[in-house]
Protein: Secreted protein
Amino acid sequence: MAVSISVVLLLLLLAVIFMRQGALKISHALVCMLFGFFLASTSMAPTITSGLTATADLVSSLKP
Structure:
């Protein structure tokens, strides 16, 4: 749960930055949001979630 909230906040931050720079239009952001919404309801959602969780675990286990 914490990983998905962190990813959502990161993506929101990136979208806001891109929109302020003019690199991302409102229509592009809306399409990306709808794509993510519909992707979450597909059968690929558990695979994507487990992949993101494994990546987060790998990154958190790295020591600088």
